[in-house]
Specification:
The protein contains nine helices and two strands. The protein is mainly α and about 190 residues long. A two-stranded antiparallel ribbon has the order 1-2. About 30% of the residues are buried.
Length: about 190
């Protein structure tokens, strides 16, 4: 991790943190072949932190997940479960993009909440889950507005109802309710005019 591991190719020697990581967790790495080493969980935690600090979230996620799965009784299991969720959340690009990373982050935060209901990070987990709900609701609200612009009110109504049904305690749900009421008032005026 410190960049001290060396590899030679055609007589040229090179150092890189990735060499050290490969020595530890690669296919033939120390922790892969000897998973029951006394400090294997400590090593995995350090590798995951290394990736996290370098903003290499997909790599950090894999290592945190490995730590959580292989060492559930480790002193680091709770921290790793929390960091796994945070790392997944850091990969969310925004409400207008693919929702799969957001759903994965929700799943990891819910897993932490279920496994560690009195955990050290439970308040942060609740805050993240509320933020995820707001993001999901905002996504559905954005889709509803798109359908309104495209003159497809039935599709818009579907998404407005989804916002209210799935994430009723969000700011987006308040806005969805207002839009829905405006649509109902407009329809009522159309019916009176007819």
């Amino acid at each position: 991790l410190l960049g001290n591991a060396k590899r030679a190719f055609l007589g040229i020697s090179d150092t890189s943190p990735s060499f050290g990581v490969d020595i530890l967790i690669g296919e033939q790495g120390l922790f892969s072949r000897f998973a029951h080493l006394e400090y294997a969980d400590d090593g995995l935690l350090e590798i995951a932190r290394h990736y996290f600090e370098k903003l290499q979230y997909p790599e950090a996620e894999k290592v945190y997940e490995r730590l959580v799965q292989k060492y559930p009784l480790s002193e680091w299991a709770e921290l790793a479960a929390y960091q796994l969720a945070v790392t997944a959340f850091k990969q969310v690009r925004g409400v207008e993009y693919d929702q799969a990373p957001l759903m994965k982050a929700r799943r990891f935060f819910n897993t932490y909440r279920n496994q560690y209901p009195r955990g050290v990070h439970i308040e942060s987990v609740r805050e993240h889950l509320a933020e995820i709900s707001e993001m999901e609701a905002q996504h559905d609200l954005t889709v509803a507005k798109y359908y309104l612009r495209e003159s497809r009110p039935e599709a818009a109504i579907y998404y407005l109802r989804e916002v209210r049904r799935n994430n009723s305690n969000t700011k987006a749900a308040v806005e969805a309710r207002q839009i829905f009421e405006q649509m109902e008032n407009y329809r009522g005026l159309e019916d009176e005019a007819a």
